[in-house]
Design brief:
Layout: H1 16-20, H2 23-33, E1 42-44, H3 46-52, E2 55-60, H4 70-84, E3 89-93, H5 97-109, E4 112-118, H6 123-131, E5 135-139, H7 146-157, E6 160-161, H8 168-184, E7 190-194, H9 199-211, E8 216-222, H10 227-234, H11 259-266, E9 269-273, H12 275-289, H13 295-305, E10 315-320, H14 327-338
Helix pairs in contact: 2-8, 4-5, 4-8, 5-6, 8-9, 9-11, 12-13
């Protein structure tokens, strides 16, 4: 059989998308994480609507366990693998939110966790990961190869690798958030999702297109981390140098091998936002809605608030993907807005 990431679509054959991830996978993930992951609230602000010129609903995954949507995929992956075979340790690599999720899930499910994290990861994310009982191996984000380090640990220890995005079980878990959002607001015109390696938007778009085929899905990246936008424009995966942006969770230099074909089939466009636009939207959300969302998590809201596409008069769903923000960094961001 040919590689599912490169298979073509003809007649009645399954699409590339269907071979990698299906609605059934997301339904199974919902059953698996039910009663463990939080069903996070959907929030709304009339003031935000006025600023954006649209009616906007926020899926508050910043209030998920471990502070981000990542808990959904991590739990789905590790629990599903436990159902298949026995292992005593998991290894993952992450800038922070996936690390925290894997650490917490491993604690809940009784396995050891080792996380490969960049030396410049936010201190709060490092502390939280260690606080859940995980071991942390640090590396240089701009000179090291986290995948190589992680795979070496897996080989040496016989551990399970839990990738941050390029895995069907991870994507399926991530997609459960959008399934919940559309249950509460079924008539959305747009879904807007932050993009890093593509696990969240692949799962989100799969759920959205099943439940509401006419919906338009936009991804959002920082202007300096536009690898997925470039990849869509070129029609193939593009790799860029590790980008520098305040959105530490969106610093992946290339979309995933498995996520990108799904993005190609289901995502209309990737919108770009600046660091300043993310900071302004973060500060506005904290001040007006009394909710803290980290820069990576606020990217989608920033794209809507700053009208990066024509959302006028439409119903828009936005994923707030995480809320893990160090108080010192928050103070720095708020200081920039104040000046």
């Amino acid at each position: 059989m040919s590689d599912p990431a490169t298979s073509s679509v003809h007649g009645s054959r399954l699409t590339v998308h269907d071979r990698i991830l299906s609605w059934g996978d997301i339904e199974e993930a919902r059953r698996r994480i039910g009663g463990v992951a939080h069903r996070t609230p959907v929030m709304h602000s009339r003031q935000f609507d006025e600023a954006a010129g649209a009616t906007v609903f926020f899926k508050a995954e910043n209030l998920q366990r471990a502070g981000a949507f990542k808990f959904r995929g991590a739990y789905n992956k590790i629990r599903a693998e436990q159902e298949r075979r026995s292992f005593s340790e998991v290894v993952a690599y992450s800038s922070g939110n996936h690390a925290q999720a894997v650490a917490l899930v491993s604690k809940l499910l009784g396995v050891k966790a080792t996380l490969v994290m960049p030396e410049d990861a936010p201190p709060a994310k490092l502390a939280a990961t260690r606080g859940y009982g995980a071991d942390v191996v640090l590396y240089d984000r701009y000179g090291g190869d986290r995948e190589e380090i992680g795979e070496k640990l897996v080989r040496e220890r016989g551990a399970l690798l839990v990738p941050p995005f390029d895995d069907p079980l991870i994507m399926a878990g991530a997609g459960t958030a959008t399934a919940e959002l559309l249950e509460e607001v079924p008539d959305l015109d747009f879904l807007v999702v932050p993009v890093s390696g593509g696990g969240l938007i692949a799962g989100s778009a799969t759920a959205a297109k099943h439940l509401r085929p006419e919906i338009t899905v936009y991804g959002v990246e920082p202007e300096t981390a536009n690898d997925t936008a470039q990849s869509l424009e070129k029609g193939e995966r593009v790799a860029i140098p590790v980008p520098r942006t305040i959105a530490d969770g969106l610093q992946v230099p290339s979309p995933g091998r498995l996520t990108f074909p799904i993005i190609q089939e289901t995502v209309t466009r990737v919108l770009l936002v600046s660091d300043d636009e993310m900071i302004e939207t973060l500060a506005w959300t904290l001040e007006r809605m009394k909710v803290l969302v980290e820069p990576s998590g606020i990217a989608g809201a920033a794209a809507v608030k700053h009208r990066k596409a024509d959302f006028a008069g439409k119903k828009v769903g936005v994923i707030w993907s995480g809320g893990n923000l160090d108080p010192k960094r928050l103070a720095t961001f708020l200081g920039k807005v104040a000046t």
